[in-house]
Write a structure and sequence with these properties.
237 residues, Pseudouridine synthase, two-stranded antiparallel ribbon
């Protein structure tokens, strides 16, 4: 077996809003001339935060790293529902927001903690008959989806200024945080959607150790190599 190169491993990126996870992969591939590049866990275009990018033979570990638990921070706007469950979608409903305190909001949030069966949103990359759901949604179609078992370790609001609540959520892979926002709005009775989202932790990796993409692509090849977490260290993590 060939020895590992300095570019076989992973690099931690703080993804900006407005880019898809695949856009980030393309940027790394283009700027540093690396043929095999992948990511571990999609972030929606408007979401920011930790994106684990795997390089070279590090791509073989993408499934392992993708299965890690995640932590998110963000905001939920109550009183407005959208078809995508976030700000990207079309408004589907608007209702007055009832008066409630931060403690009352956290009581409702606590009911989501534990094992739950979650219905993926129509506007998602999950495929039905080989076609991504979001493509069907664009045609105005809604199809049956299979609920998925997820686990939410913690879901708590740290601030509420009507109609926006600031939260932190820890969960297993495959959790749609925007679905949690939508379902919480339904539970309260006024509707809601995910306003902002930032991933702060993925497995043992923290966004505090990540570098913003615009800064990363300004590094020299030698400086970039120093940011790569080696393959063998990933295996041991």
């Amino acid at each position: 077996m060939q020895p590992f190169s300095t570019l076989d491993g992973a690099v931690l990126i703080d993804k900006p809003a407005g880019m898809t996870s695949h856009d980030v992969v393309d940027e790394i591939r283009r700027y540093f001339g690396i043929k095999k590049v992948g990511h571990c866990g999609t972030l929606d275009p408007n979401a920011t935060g930790l994106l684990v990018i795997v390089l070279g033979r590090g791509t073989k570990l993408s499934e392992k790293l993708m299965s890690d638990d995640k932590v998110y921070e963000g905001t939920i706007k109550f009183g407005e529902s959208t078809d995508s469950y976030d700000t990207d979608g079309e408004l589907t409903g608007s209702l007055p927001v009832p008066l409630f305190t931060l403690d009352q909001l956290n009581e409702d949030a606590s009911t989501f903690i534990g094992d739950i069966m979650q219905m993926p949103p129509m506007v998602s990359a999950i495929k039905k008959g080989g076609v991504p759901l979001y493509k069907l949604a664009r045609k105005g179609l809604e199809v049956e989806r299979e609920a998925r078992l997820i686990h939410i370790y913690n879901f708590r609001f740290t601030d509420y200024q009507e109609p926006v609540g600031t939260f932190k959520l820890a969960c297993t892979k495959g959790t749609y945080v925007r679905s949690v926002a939508h379902e919480l709005g339904q539970k309260i009775g006024c509707g809601a959607h995910l306003a902002t989202l930032r991933r702060t932790v993925s497995g043992k990796f923290d966004v505090a150790d990540a570098k913003p993409l615009d800064q990363l692509i300004q590094l020299s090849p030698a400086e970039f190599e120093k940011r790569v977490i080696p393959f063998l260290k990933l295996v041991a993590s």
